[in-house]
Amino acid sequence: MLAAAALVLTGCAGGAGTAGAASAAGAAAARTPDRAATAGPAAPAPDPVDWQACGTGFDCATVEVPVEYGSPRGERIELAVTRHRATDPDRRIGSLFVNPGGPGVSATEMVERIDVAHGTGPFSAEVVARFDVVGVDPRGVGDSEAVRCLTDEQRAAQAAEDRDPTIPGGKRFGRLLTDARTFTHGCLDHQSRTFLASLSTDNVARDLDQVRAALGEEQITFYGASYGTVVGPVYATLFPERVRQMVIDGPVDTDLWQNDPLRLLDDVEVSNERTLDAWFETCRAEGTAVCSFGDGDPEAAFDALVRQLEKRPLQVQPVDGLTPGGPLDGAAALEGVRAAAGNQALWPLLTAGLIGAEQGNGTLLHAMVSSVTVAPFGGPFATLQEPHTAVRCADWPEVDRLSDHHRAARTIAERHDRLGGRAAYSALSCALWPVDNRDRFTDVLDGAGAPPVLVVGGRLDNVSPHHWAEAMAERLDDAVLLTREGVGHTSYGTSGPCVDDAVDAVLIDGILPEDGTVCDVPPATTKPLAAPAGAGA
Asked: What keywords tag this UniProt record (predicted)?
């Protein structure tokens, strides 16, 4: 299995200051009334959580919530909840709710990655000591009645289909439309219309508040990454007085999310391309003694390699723990490159993979496709596609005019981007979505009345461009922006002590860094790692 090398931060520009401690929450709440009234009739108070031990330090449970908050005493669903108990209960602050993104990534699995014995996991030892870390799988995700729209056979057949990187969407439009129809009809075969219409992020936020009440907490602390940065502002907008502290990492532009999803997806595609361009620039700058791929012209060598692989795919043999094997054509190579270019810790592997493929060994590039590839807003694409799409279609305004999708695809094609092919028509299923979310939440997500929010944005993020972080910090009623230099999506736990210490200070003590703080990271390198033995052509 591929593993990202650790990044060590070398500096933190900008002084540390206080922009509101925990006491600010009460004052903010006093200024702004609870906007939860917009949620409709009040749901019945949930029963206290009935925890069952599910590992050392872990408890698991389910919490029942209404399918529709407009009919709070109607049909109900069960949400999967996992917590890791605070390791220092005498200093326990409360519950830290987490959402890792997607949409479609399991929050319970994120919590389950906490490993106190080995000192690893998504949160620092001090955060794990001071908080019960709580993961709630959003409705339609993970163990909370995950959305399914395809049979295993259909999923396998689509994964095995040949794609042409020169065609927008990878296939002729007629075939893309057929796939979208198969997908959307399958969603109705496996789920009710009511359930599909309920998968919106405002309902996810209401669900979190039901879990908060079931835990007996007056307030929650929240950390959200990627799509979780939509969940957080929705919660802070609906329930500002119930937020103790909040950090959002790798933020989404919530205005685009709510109002212009095709432009949002175009921004993602541009960000993907910029990270690949950064790899090319670094490879050239480091010189052939470090990055020999392309002998000084990596762009030309890359384009030639993709054409060659598309003409004559490499047959990759299985390698235990690395890749299941299979053909590596140009389209597949682009998927692997897209993922690896977006994380500078993987750049050495990317260099080795490209050199290996040139020499007839596609093992590393194939491993990147099968093990590292991520969907927009995070998560393994193959396992997240169905809930990912269902949540997006529930949240987004109607994009049912095919002409809008054609126009967006032309915009991408006219840029001649190397990684643009798959991005075209990536929201086509929403054009055919079979249910309407009639009560879509459209309020500006400003979190008015909540304590100051820490917004962490990467300078070169392959999914969330930095201007999204700037927009988020501006849109929120009270926020501080911290910028991480370098390439990568989200920053906490991967970028060194400058970011980690700042996030921990907010979560634990409510102490924010000075607005505009910049955290440096070591310069990226394309110097290749040794490639593993694998199949040749």
From this structure: Hydrolase, Signal
CA distance 315 to 537: 6
Sequence-distant (≥ 6) Cβ neighbours of residue 46 within 8 angstroms: 63, 64, 65, 210, 211, 213, 214
Q: Tell which residue, 126, 185, 186, has the closest CA to residue 151.
A: 186
Q: Which residue has the tokens 């060194």?
A: 496
For residue 107, list its beta bridge partners: none
Domain boundaries, position 226: 11-145+200-256+450-520
Contacts of 340 (CB under 8 A, 6+ apart): 346, 347, 349, 350, 353, 368, 372
Tens digits of per-residue pLDDT, 316-335? 998 887 888 889 999 999 99
Residue 113's H or E segment, with its range, is: none
Between 498 and 32, residue with greater pLDDT: 498
Q: Is 219 among the domain residues?
A: yes
Task: Give the helix ranges, DSSP H, for 312-449.
Answer: 330-341, 347-358, 363-371, 381-395, 402-415, 428-431
Distance CA 335, CA 317 (A): 19
- Is residue 336 within 8 Å of 330, Cβ to Cβ? no
Output the CA–CA distances (angstroms, integers) from residue 116 to 52, 87, 360, in the order listed: 19, 9, 43
Name the region of 425 (left: φ>0; alpha: ψ -120 to 50; beta: rest). Answer: left
Residue 73 lies in a domain: yes
Kindly list the distances between the CA atom of residue 38 and the CA atoms of 24, 33, 46, 237, 359, in Å, as whole numbers in the listed order: 24, 11, 20, 10, 61
For residue 473, give the CATH number of its domain: 3.40.50.1820
Neighbouring C-beta atoms of residue 420, cutoff 10 Å: 22
**Is the predicted pLDDT of residue 432 greater than 80, yes or no?**
yes
- Rounded distance, CA 430 to CA 448, Å? 31
pLDDT at 507 over 50: yes
243-257 residue pLDDT tens: 999 999 999 999 999
Quick one: pLDDT band at residue 40, thresholds 50, 70, 90?
Answer: low
Q: Where are the beta strands (DSSP E) in 250-352?
A: 314-316, 326-328
The domain tally of the chain equals 1
Contact 443, 300 (CB under 8 A): no
Confidence (pTM): 0.90
Residue type, 402: L
